[in-house]
Each structure stands twice: as C-alpha cells, then as structure tokens.
Amino acid sequence: MNPEVFVDILRDALFLVILLVSAIILPSLFVGLAVAIFQAATSINEQTLSFLPRLIVTLLALSFGGHWLTRVIMEFTQELILSIPTVVG
After folding, report:
1. Around 7, how many Cα atoms within 13 Å sit in the side-chain half-sphere?
2. DSSP character for 46?
3. Is residue 37 situated within a structural domain?
4. Which residues 6+ apart lie within 8 Å of 31 measured at CB?
5. Sign of CA dihedral 72, 74, 78, 84
6. In a domain, 67, yes or no
7. 58-77 pLDDT, tens digit each
C-alpha cells in the first residue's frame, strides 16, 4: 500500500469531478454572460430574465449530457473496483 496509489486515485477523482461539473456549468455560464450583456445594453433589471435561461440551459445540459456523465462515472467506478486487489495486496 503505497501512498502514491491513493494520491493517484484522489487526483483522478478530482479531475473527474472537475470534468463533470464543467460540462454542466460552462453552458450556463455562457448563457448567463450573454443575458447579463443584454441586460446591461437594454437597462432591463429583471431577476427572472437572468435566472430562467440559465436554469433551462442547465437542465438541457443535464438532459443531453446525462448519458455521457453516467458512463464516465460508471467507468471510473469499475476502474476503482478492479484496482482493489492492487491497493490491498
């Protein structure tokens, strides 16, 4: 049981979390930026105008990317389970 093995597992897990979260958050970030520019240009200060498009884009990102997100998580879990003998032994 080397500490390097646990560090590698933790690094891979953190990279996976960053990858999955960015796949959901980045589209919402770009839509929020576009809406903010639109609001600044037109002087419209409506809260629902900034919230609703981001919510819809986030839900669409989850809907379209859900299969990929699930597959990536399942592959990582399978790799973790298959690496148990090398970590324990």
Report:
1. 3
2. -
3. yes
4. 53, 54, 57
5. positive
6. yes
7. 999 999 999 999 999 999 99
Phi/psi of residue 65, each to 5°?
-100, 0
The answer for residues whose C-beta is within 8 angstroms of residue 20's C-beta and 6 or more apart is 69, 72, 73
Query: Which residues constitute the domain of residue 44?
Result: 3-82
Contacts of range 81-87, beta carbons closer than 8 Å, 24 or more positions apart: 83/5, 83/9, 86/5, 87/1, 87/5, 87/6, 87/9
pLDDT surpassing 80 at residue 89 = no
Total count of domains within the chain: 1
With a CB cutoff of 8 Å and minimum separation 6, the contacts of 44 are 38
Residue 13 within any structural domain of the chain = yes
